[in-house]
Amino acid sequence: MATMPEFLTSETLAAAAPAGPQPARDPFQLRALPFEDVYFRPKKMDNSKLIREADPRAGGACWKVIGAASLALLFLGGVLAPSVANTVAGYKLESLRVEAQKLADERRGLDLQEAQLLSPDRLDRLARGRHLVTPSASQVVRLDNPGDSKVAMVRK
Fold first, then answer.
1. What does the H/E/C string look like for 14-78?
2. What would the pLDDT profile of 59-89 be if each residue is shown by its tens digit?
3. What residues contact 127, with CB distance under 8 A and at least 6 apart?
């Protein structure tokens, strides 16, 4: 055994071997796990009194990261701004189309209502209801200018 350490000589191995007959081993018994007999007892540690030393280069590194993030944000904003503006304009255009359609429908409804209110049949019914009649020919006075070029003047 060329690789055996020096402290494991034949004397120490013989001394470590149990003397006497060995009891019969149970064939169903599991072999021992490695380090089964080793117990680790944790030490109680109190790091509450420790004070971290300030790193003089940490502040500069933070400002560099902040500056790089700001530049990246500006670049990303510049790249995305036109597409966002196009999307917003598309939404506004579509809402204006919907509003124009609604206003056109409302105008058609108002034109129909106006036509119903100004229909000759309705006007005749209203005139008869208020006892208004068409004047006879003798009641009509024409104010046509017979050809005279005389014009009335207003004096103050």
1. HHHCCCCCCCCCCCCCCCCCCCCCCCCCCCCCCCCCCCCCCCCCHHHHHHHHHHHHHHHHHHHHH
2. 888 889 999 999 999 999 999 999 999 999 9
3. 133
**Where is 125: in which H helix or E strand?**
helix 120-129
DSSP letter at 107 equals H
Distance (Å, whole) CA 102 – CA 110: 12
Q: What is the pTM of this model?
A: 0.41
Q: For 101-140, write each residue's pLDDT tens digit.
A: 999 999 999 999 999 999 999 988 999 899 888 888 888 8
The token duo for 138 is 């003798």
The CA distance from 125 to 118, in Å, is 11
The first and second tokens of residue 31, run together, are 């072999």
